[in-house]
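Chain A, query sequence.
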Amino acid sequence: MTVLLIDDEPEMSELVGQWLDQLGSSVVRVGCFEDALAFAGRTRPRVVLLDIALGDEDGLEMLPRLRASPELGQVPIVVFSVHASKRREALDRGAAGFVAKPFEGDDLIATLRPFLA
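Chain A, predicted structure.
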């Protein structure tokens, strides 16, 4: 099972990848919307993990675009951010879940496990 991680911070991507290895998931890391769609067109992920802050892109603005894509329209998207106040907006825009930074690996795994079962 594959998790598509959309995050532009290599350190966070590496850490999340290590945590998800515990679930037996393979993690594909991309840093922008176009790369996410290109990957999803080749291999449909089981879940998408999306950071809100992506350099020049806004993850919240990206959410409806991901939902509208044929490749990712039905794939659960879990958002993570240091801005816990963005939880409601993320869910309203189509996120299936939200994890506030900083988070522990157990918190992330608990949020993602239902989507990976």
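The chain has a mean pLDDT of 89. The beta strands are 2-6, 26-30, 47-51, 53-54, 57-58, 77-81, 97-100.
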